[in-house]
């Protein structure tokens, strides 16, 4: 899946999983060489993207489907549930890291692990129908997985930040106020920038802040609280 953060991205990921396949997040901003290696290493058979990104894609054996220009054809497809069998050991997604050699290294994750994580989060932090979760982590990072699927499984609302929005504290404050966001993730360094942004006083909806990726100091916790 080679898309910017958007509703189409969410639909694409759900569609891949519902079809019984696994998705590989491919950031269109990556260098063409890296994109080529990822497509070759995974042996991807289908590449979901938009017309605007076709020019940045390297040659590959994958069949390219542009969700924007093919929308009419896609709409003609049956709405019946695909007759596929998916189990706990079935591959759900492959996320690439930089790798110890500098070459991208794919980490494979199965449905069982994803479901286990989401079940634990729901038991511990219980989302409900009135909750609003902000999806802002780039989908090439693991945190994005629960941002996408936890609210959808729990019947909560999913709000998708604009491309690049995860790096803009002022935009995030405005968006979270407008959408009544209750649940969000930050790495601690970004949380610090966020809590120092003017206008947080009116963000009364926020109830859960999940932190990971860096050490979280007690001082920052107190400041955020």
From TrEMBL:
InterPro entries: AMP-binding_CS (IPR020845), AMP-dep_synth/lig_dom (IPR000873), Beta-ala_Activ/Resist (IPR052091). This is AMP-binding protein. SUPFAM superfamilies: Acetyl-CoA synthetase-like. PANTHER family: BETA-ALANINE-ACTIVATING ENZYME (PTHR44394:SF1). Residues 1-224 form the AMP-dependent synthetase/ligase domain. It comes from the Bacteria. One of its GO terms (biological process) is amino acid activation for nonribosomal peptide biosynthetic process.
């Amino acid at each position: 899946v080679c898309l910017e953060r958007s509703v189409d991205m969410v639909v694409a990921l759900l569609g891949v999983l519902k079809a019984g396949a696994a998705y590989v997040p491919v950031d269109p901003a990556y260098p063409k060489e890296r994109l080529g290696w990822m497509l070759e290493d995974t042996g991807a058979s289908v590449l979901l993207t938009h017309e605007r990104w076709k020019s940045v894609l390297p040659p590959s054996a994958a069949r390219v489907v542009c969700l924007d220009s093919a929308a009419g054809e896609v709409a003609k497809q049956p709405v019946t549930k695909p007759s596929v069998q998916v189990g706990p050991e079935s591959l759900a997604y492959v996320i690439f890291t930089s790798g110890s050699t500098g070459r991208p290294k794919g980490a494979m994750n199965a449905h069982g692990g994803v479901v286990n994580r989401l079940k634990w989060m729901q038991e511990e932090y219980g989302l409900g129908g009135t909750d609003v979760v902000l999806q802002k982590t780039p989908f090439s990072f693991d945190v994005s997985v629960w941002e996408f699927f936890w609210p959808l499984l729990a019947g909560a609302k999913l709000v998708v930040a604009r491309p690049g929005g995860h790096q803009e504290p002022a935009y995030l404050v405005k968006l979270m106020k407008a959408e009544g966001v209750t649940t969000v993730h930050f790495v601690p360094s970004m949380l610090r920038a966020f809590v120092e942004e003017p206008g947080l006083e009116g963000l009364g909806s926020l109830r859960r802040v999940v932190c990971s990726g860096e050490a979280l100091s007690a001082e920052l916790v107190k400041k955020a609280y």
